[in-house]
Amino acid sequence: MSATLQQTSRLYNELYNEFYSSNPDLNRCGQYLATLKVMLSKISFLLPEGEINNAEALLIGRNILEIGALWSVATKDIPSFERYIAQLHTYYTDYGSLLPQSQQMYPLIGLNLLRLLSQNRIAEFHTALENIEPEQLLDNDYVKHPVHLEQYLMEGSYNKVWNSRAEIPAPQYAFFIDILMETIRNEIASCSEKAYTCLPLSDAATLLFFDNRQDVITFAMERGWQVETDGKIYFATKDDNMVEIPSTGIIKHALYYARELEQIV
């Protein structure tokens, strides 16, 4: 084992012990990961390619990147999560046969599917599904969960999306579901502004999937809605953007053109 690989292995163990401790220091984990990625680059295992005979180094590299992906979710760093998943894709596909299957693989694949849903990247979601073994779509809870969510979204069954929070296969899934629900809330809010003049606070809470009155009021203020003492939300209207349609003039022109056509015929 080379000296660099020995150092990488030793620092990985420190990262592992810290991240999976009862109260991990996420800042320290981030420092470990930054150093370890440099070390993996030096030994060409950050983005491995070609024929590889060192299964030990390959295993350490995969484990580091998996912790990095989970750390990214814990720190709510979506771009970082996306980079780690892209790097892990090589390990899972090109070198999967050289390593024992990772217990974190399908949880991370499911998290990535959920990320794509929360970002409304539906085409990429289906492309990612095509790379998953068909039996896993039916039998693996980590994969089934985002697949079912996508079906609920296509049906417009937003209440099922909300209720799915109680059925998440891993705690990390709640992060992306919360983002997805925020997107759904804004879509419902936009439709409500067009459909209603006002709504009682209790009805708005139910419609927008809020559990308490204060959350509704905060959301309403962010949208520029008026919350009045009568317990109702009044949706803001922008009169200056309203365009008056000159109906009388349009009718006169239509009649004029009709008479001219009659004379031509």
UniProtKB/TrEMBL annotation:
Location of the PCI domain: 79-251
Pfam families: CSN8_PSD8_EIF3K
GO CC annotation: cytosol; nucleus; proteasome regulatory particle, lid subcomplex
Taxonomic superkingdom: Eukaryota
UniProt key word Nucleotide-binding: no
PROSITE patterns per UniProt: PCI
Keyword entries, A-Z: Proteasome
KW Ribonucleoprotein (keyword) present: no
InterPro entries: 26S_Psome_Rpn12 (IPR006746), CSN8_PSD8_EIF3K (IPR033464), PCI_dom (IPR000717)
GO biological process, one term: proteasome-mediated ubiquitin-dependent protein catabolic process
Family per record: Belongs to the proteasome subunit S14 family.
PANTHER family cross-referenced by the UniProt entry: 26S PROTEASOME NON-ATPASE REGULATORY SUBUNIT 8
The protein's name in its UniProt record: 1348_t:CDS:1
Biological source species: Paraglomus occultum
